[in-house]
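Researcher: Go.
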Amino acid sequence: MTEKILIPISAGWHAVQVAVGTPVSPSTLPAQILDKIPAQVPGTIASALRAAGQFEYGKDNFDEADVWYFCDLDLPENAAFLHFEGLATHAEVYWNDDLLLRSENMFIAHSLDLAALAISGKGRLSLRFLAMNTQLAQRRPRPRWKTRLVEQQQLRWMRTSLLGRMPGWSPPVAPVGPYRPILLELQSPVRITNKNISSSIDGVGAVLDIELTVQSQQAVSACAINIGEHEFILDCEQLDKNLYRIYGQCKIDEVKKWWPHTHGDAAIYTLELHVSCATQKQIFDLGHTGFRQIRVDQRDGDFNLHVNDVSLFCRGACWTPVDIISLQNESTDLRHMLTLARDAGMNMLRVVGTMVYETTAFYKLCDELGILVWQDCMFANMDYPVSDEAFAASITTEVQQFLQRTQSSPCIAIVCGNSEVEQQAAMLGQPAELWRNAFFAETLPALCEQYRPDVQYWPSSPSGGVMPFQLDTGVAHYFGVGAYLRPLDDARRSAVRFTSECLGFSNMPDDDLIDGMLNNGETPGPHPAWKQGIPRDNGTGWDFEDVRDHYMAELYKVNPASLRYAERERYLSLARTTTGEVMANTIAEWRRSGSTCHGALVWFWRDLRPGAGWGVIDAHGKPKAAYYYLKRAMASLTVLITDEGLNGLCLHIINDGPQAFEGELELNLYRQSESRVAHGRIAVQVEAHSAIKVQDYALLPHFVDTSYAYRFGPAGHDVVEAVLYDSEQIIANDFHFPQGHQFAVQADVGLRAHCSLDADGNHVLHLSTQKLAQAVCIQIPGMLPEDNYFHMAPGSSRQVSLSAIHGKSVKAGQVQAQNALTGVRVVLENSAASTATTVVTTVATTVAN
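Model: Structure:
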């Protein structure tokens, strides 16, 4: 059951790089060029070289040479169309030596009618990708302003991704090649040629509007659509010979609404079209849809996203491709990445204008997992020549195709015109009338109204204030805590409303990635091999490792430079937790009761290359420490502590879910990281989709200087823990250190561990500690812990589920508290009871110092 009979043309391809100016035609290509390599389609020349063992970061400049792909085909008699879903970037398509197509926009799909072109039988399909530098060298009008994001300003004319072309934060891997599928469509008695589907909420019910254009060799007699279990008869009218319009408005009295996963169920309805003709009945899978309402409250400069009339705190990250080299999303890798985002409490991902429109599989999975998408159109930082007629037509088609391709996906909440175009123009001193052009102000919102009336259009990220980068109005990019080295309380002082880009740090990966990327004798720090993986703003004298080290010094009262060479392992440990602590503190500030902020998207999701990049996921797909800190701070049901100075500590219980919560809240104060000196526990109730604030004094029998703000003598405690219980089960906890994070490293904090298997055969790590165990790190190669880099209160215990990482062998590891010299070694043994899995056991002993 499919809309079209499509056959991927993915095998039998070869590729070659040819020097610009080499006189080569498709028929002479194999004879003249001997160094061809097998190529994967979809893919890029970089991924072909990687598969051939010839790829190295920075070795090739893929914009300097022409690239040819070629494949010998024997087209069946019923071949009807060739579809090219994405050619990067200036491309020519040949059948034998006949030129069939020129494409100058990698974001536009093309279809070739084989019958109209008289193409059949055996032949060679060849693709030529013209060297980008040759296109850039052509004389064109200059921009009104220049950006430092890219080195070549004429890229503004090129409809291509800026990935690989942004010095400082993108590795030099420009996408060149057929990066999206090439498909052969076979003839079909009934064929859908155009499709418009839109969904909306109507009270407790819903409406689906559908309009299709259908070609049929036989007269269409009846049409119907199944929306889940609901069936509706559609109207049909003949437009021309063999051409029909099928349409209707389908009303469902009661519908399950689609929610982001943090707030409810992501209810999906399948769409199945039935077309009856004279002698046959055709069934088409039209995908799925979900019913939800999106609106944004913009009163008084706000940006407050509501889904189904419920205000959301949107949190997540700026999405990065699973593989920057091939730009492919393998299904298992994509599901794993998006599941990690969901499990981290992220309910929104932003597809940024510097990258690519994502695959259809990406949006389908976001629909399924309940993850909202902030979708930038692929424009960033530059003065685009939208007044040029050909350019304007191309980008209009580009956006139109994307909106139609994804029009039934409920995950898309925001369509944004661009990334930082308004900010760039304003910061370079351009007058306000030049910040936004007619395409972003008029054409794009009109396209959204036509094809996606259910989403919110926003012209630029950031935008909204007197200056477009103003923090307390509209949408901001917030790097006060981060690149601008502001104190942590700047997150509150800036009164951010919504930040679609924030908290960019050089996040340190775990040891296994570091050991895999550095040779013997090389160490994280100034070494050139290490610095290649550190992001920086182009042209600056500092990088984001300097930013991280600044906050490390503030947080832990250490000298990062001396620590790096004198105590390498401690430096790495503090580097990992520094960014995690700062991010979690800032997210808690923005999620607290009374905050003006309604959303925060971290910059960004996954590293583009191995190293300590901006990603909270490393280049190999493994979560970094920062991921786990965000996971706790972004949880749908949680408790967060904020320091209110002379007002003490506030405990914020947040319940985003659809059910009311009843439980208990506990407050514990500890002295010298060991002895509990104050304690309180009360019953709490939090309604669905809401939060409450509890003052610390409400849990304590007498006054305690919980925040150590009054300072009437030595502090009576150095650790504060808030715990949220459901019955006797711990739901969440949070820690506050009133005297700072700089705890003395002890020989042994009493951390113990052992592993067992639960009833389902899953691995569970059991932990206990006598004293405060700070930032407990679980490093077991081949195993992914459900939680990591967490604090454990004195005398506490907890269990952590472990899952095997696909394709990785399980090896011995250890559990280590940051404030302890010794760790617990984890020994792995094969289980006699099972031959299918490796069972983890541990030896609960500490390694002597």
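Model: The longest strand covers residues 190-202.
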